[in-house]
Amino acid sequence: MITLPNECYYEIFNNLQHNYKTLFSCALVNREWCRFIIPILWSEPRRYFSDTRLIRICLLTLNAEEQAFLIPFKISLPSYSKPLFEYTSYITSVSEFLFEGIKNWLRYNKYSRGLGNVVKHSLITMFLRTGKNLKYLYIDETICSPIILEYFYKNSTVNTVDFVPSYDINDDFKSKAIDGLNENIIGST
């Protein structure tokens, strides 16, 4: 049996990056192909963030600290085993569709919509912690906290942030959050 160099596999599968069904089928062929394909499938989830199944997988990636943030709100996390891959480490952009997916997940699991910011906070923190390839982040100012700012400082891969302002939090914290994000992004370029 003849095997191709890894670079060839990567090129072949990368040319199929927008053909999700074909890539998914190829990922089931063998472990070697799967290791090439999973990073490609998970690099740009875009609108798929609105799917509750994707949110459930992301929630499985939360560490103890991120899970602890949800405990006071009686949010039950999925009880499935940890995924085989750390899928979130392959994601290059987190779009506004994440927030739509969180709303869908809350509705599906019969939680109050008011818990959306708590879940957003935990997931954004997790994306910043695990995002080895994260370049773009859409973030809502209402969830900006010292913990998230700390992870921004630690994550040097983010180079574009859509920072959506909110007018229901105090101006002092708002300006500190914006200053912290600006400092981090400007300092890393």
Automatic annotation (TrEMBL):
<feature type="domain" description="F-box">
    <location>
        <begin position="3"/>
        <end position="45"/>
    </location>
</feature>
<dbReference type="InterPro" id="IPR001810">
    <property type="entry name" value="F-box_dom"/>
</dbReference>
<dbReference type="InterPro" id="IPR036047">
    <property type="entry name" value="F-box-like_dom_sf"/>
</dbReference>
<protein>
    <recommendedName>
        <fullName>F-box domain-containing protein</fullName>
    </recommendedName>
</protein>
<dbReference type="Pfam" id="PF12937">
    <property type="entry name" value="F-box-like"/>
</dbReference>
